[in-house]
Amino acid sequence: MINILIIExxxxxxxxxxxxxxxxNYSGFCCYDGKSGAEEALKGSYDLILxxxxxxxxxxxxxxxxxxxxxxxxxxxxxxxxVADKVKGLRLGAEDYIVKPFEAxxxxxxxxxxxxxxxxxxxxxxxGDISVDMGRHxxxxxxxxxxxxxxxxxxxxxxLQHQDIAVSRExxxxxxxxxxxxxxxxTVDIHVQQVRRKLGLRDKLITIPKLGYRLExxxxx
Length: 221
Description:
Strand content: 15-25%
Oligomer: single chain
CATH superfamily of the largest domain: Response regulator
Order of helices and strands: EHEHEHEHEHEEEEHEHHEE
CATH topology of the largest domain: Rossmann fold
Number of strands: 12
Strand order of the largest sheet: 2-1-3-4-5
Distance between the termini: 25 Å
Radius of gyration: 19 Å
CATH architecture of the largest domain: 3-Layer(aba) Sandwich
């Protein structure tokens, strides 16, 4: 289980972040001021820290100064867009800097990049009778290997990491193929159709008209 510390003084935002992280089965623990956040970071065992800049008791930069020794990767969260503040945060050792407001998918994508960089992502993803071995790039269903192309593998992994979230074709093309959407959806659609067919996900990997797709979690009725 990936454990993430959320240091954010706005209770509603903190809860939203925690709920977003739970979508990909990450555990979130919230602190609402800089002092308690720094104490928790130093005594706890976390894979990542999401740290707001404007905090009571102690601001995010001061917290960062105190917790650098623990070696936990940090992503700054802030409503400020001042370049000098971004540079300051990065120079203090932050891995990334997200400006509020942000979309759930953006947060999950940034978190995933930092976790991968830190070699802390899940090695195996389970979904019903489907098991994905990330390290060996192998997918099995009911214990039997399923032959997917490299891009089909990347597509199903992306959906598994973003369950119950509406994913546009633009987002999928950018995240899996690494380039911007140019109006041609055929590449995305063909790969999704193949993944559906090979893994029997017709009722779970659903089409959202005029947008894209959504993989419903196993708990969804």
